[in-house]
């Protein structure tokens, strides 16, 4: 499935290039395409020569840049690179001084120098680029010089240090960007490498590389306003976020870069107070708000009508959640609408049968245990679910439409504020010892009375477990209700 519909709205490649027009106008491109009997032009994306020619042709056609890519170097895909740059441009709107001159730092620019070239030519920024590989440095310098951009792009040959050499100067940068090698040195590739070893592999992989970036960024907080990085693996995003939370950055955010059939992930953080990075929402997040996980508790024939409302159901669920070790912070309580924030340090809702069997076995083995069993086999000190004292939940004049509006407002606030909640937590903990254990799940629970039934919605706020954990917790509550009717 093509992901172009989620590309940045300013990306010119949201509309794919016309290969037929390119083949007519550019002879070199014409050599690497074929034409079928209907006249349609085809490009073999598995052919490295064809890909290299496509990229250099797009550089020339769309940006008037003459770029030469060495035969063994990584071939940058321009739609992906533009998505990254345009996201950075969005982040820069949070800085008060962005109306003036923009100066950015590209760490590990590669042979193509793609980010500095596009930033200078397309966005009008000034750039400093670093490169540790001598061959890549030479090729990048040639590309910059050939396009008469030496006044806007300064490239430096550096050692293995990420920031230290370049940021020892007094210059202040609005942002830094980096597309680190995705793979560890022990990664085995089928066929030829798509780029040089230094472009493809790094010690510890991309997560360890970013870990080093974060550590070095602590020493230069006043030199770079916004640090950003592009990741190649979805699994790396959670690990990088954990590193940033542990480092107590002032603010952080993530996004997705969608193009063609490929997805990449961006992470940004800042040490600058007052810069709320989470206020910039990515294109995919805007277009696809995650739906809450929902289920309905049908009217029970054997229970009195007064026992069937949002409050009674909410009390049951809160009890079950707290019994499994989750923290439930109640926000609203009434007969018609209840809401709470649920936080779990572990997936304690899993393996409940096994835990009950183990508890039962220990109780039977320990005659001096506090728990006793009644004749029907149920622990007598557990009580019955649903027997809770009534709280004052009067909702005078609350019509169904007003109730829907309140619920919708809360749910939307929960979804849109996902990152904001996380950043508030980071800001609050800046002066205190941080909790090294990040929650596996944080979600909002909504319980509302809808005529003869009670509707339950769970909305993801954050946590390492993601939406899959919300799905599991929803199933846990459904099963609990089914077994306790």
What can be said about this structure in brief?
With about 475 residues, the protein is α/β, with parallel strands linked by helices.
Describe this entry's structure for a reader.
- A hairpin with a 2-residue loop joins strand 8 and strand 9.
- The protein is elongated, with a radius of gyration of 28 Å.
- The longest helix is centred in the last third of the chain and has 18 residues, at 466-483.
- Helices cover 36% and strands 19% of the residues.
- It is built from 15 helices and 14 strands.
- Helix 4 (78-92) crosses helix 5 and helix 8 runs parallel beside helix 9.
- With 485 residues, it is of the alpha/beta class.
- The protein starts with 18 loop residues before the first helix and ends with a helix.
- The chain has a seven-stranded mixed sheet, sandwiched between helices. Strands 10-14-13-12-11 form a five-stranded antiparallel sheet, with helices on both faces.
């Amino acid at each position: 499935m093509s992901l172009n519909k989620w590309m940045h709205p300013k990306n010119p490649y949201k509309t794919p290039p016309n290969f037929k027009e390119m083949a007519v106008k550019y002879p070199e491109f014409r050599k690497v395409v074929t034409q079928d009997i209907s006249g349609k032009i085809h490009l073999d994306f598995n052919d490295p020569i064809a890909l290299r020619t496509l990229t250099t042709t797009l550089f020339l056609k769309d940006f008037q840049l003459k770029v030469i890519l060495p035969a063994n170097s990584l071939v940058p895909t321009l739609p992906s690179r533009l998505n990254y740059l345009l996201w950075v441009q969005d982040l820069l709107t949070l800085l008060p001084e962005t109306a003036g001159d923009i100066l950015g730092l590209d760490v590990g620019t590669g042979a193509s120098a793609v980010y500095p070239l596009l930033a200078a030519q397309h966005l009008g920024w000034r750039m400093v680029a670093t490169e540790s590989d001598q061959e890549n440095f030479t090729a990048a310098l040639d590309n910059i010089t050939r396009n008469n951009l030496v006044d806007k792009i300064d490239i430096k040959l550096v050692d293995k240090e990420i920031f230290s050499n370049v940021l020892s100067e007094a210059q202040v940068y609005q942002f830094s960007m980096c597309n680190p090698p995705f793979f560890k040195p022990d990664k085995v590739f089928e066929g030829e490498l798509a780029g040089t070893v230094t472009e493809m592999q790094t010690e510890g992989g991309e997560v360890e590389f970013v870990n080093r970036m974060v550590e070095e960024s602590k020493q230069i907080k006043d030199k770079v306003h916004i640090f950003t990085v592009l990741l190649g693996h979805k699994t790396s995003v959670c690990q990088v976020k954990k590193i940033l939370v542990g480092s107590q950055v002032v603010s952080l955010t993530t996004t997705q870069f969608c193009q063609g059939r490929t997805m990449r992930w961006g992470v940004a953080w800042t040490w600058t107070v007052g810069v709320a990075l989470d206020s910039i929402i990515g294109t995919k997040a805007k277009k696809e708000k995650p739906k809450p996980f929902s289920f309905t508790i049908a009217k029970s024939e054997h229970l009195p009508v007064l026992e069937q409302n949002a409050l009674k159901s909410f009390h049951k669920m809160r009890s079950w959640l707290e019994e499994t070790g989750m923290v439930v912070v109640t926000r609203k309580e009434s007969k018609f609408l209840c809401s709470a924030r649920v936080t779990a340090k572990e997936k304690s809702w899993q393996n409940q049968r096994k835990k009950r069997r183990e508890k039962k076995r220990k109780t039977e083995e320990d005659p001096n245990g506090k728990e006793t069993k009644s004749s029907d086999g149920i622990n007598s000190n557990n009580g019955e679910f649903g027997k809770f004292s009534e709280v004052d939940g009067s909702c005078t004049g609350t019509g169904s439409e007003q109730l829907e509006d309140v619920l919708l407002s809360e749910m939307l606030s929960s979804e849109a504020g996902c990152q904001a909640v996380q950043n508030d937590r980071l800001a609050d903990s800046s002066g205190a010892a941080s909790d090294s254990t990040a929650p596996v799940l944080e979600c909002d629970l909504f319980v509302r009375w809808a005529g003869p039934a009670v509707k339950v919605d769970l909305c993801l706020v954050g946590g390492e477990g993601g939406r899959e954990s919300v799905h599991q917790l929803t199933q846990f509550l459904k099963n609990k209700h089914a077994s306790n009717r």
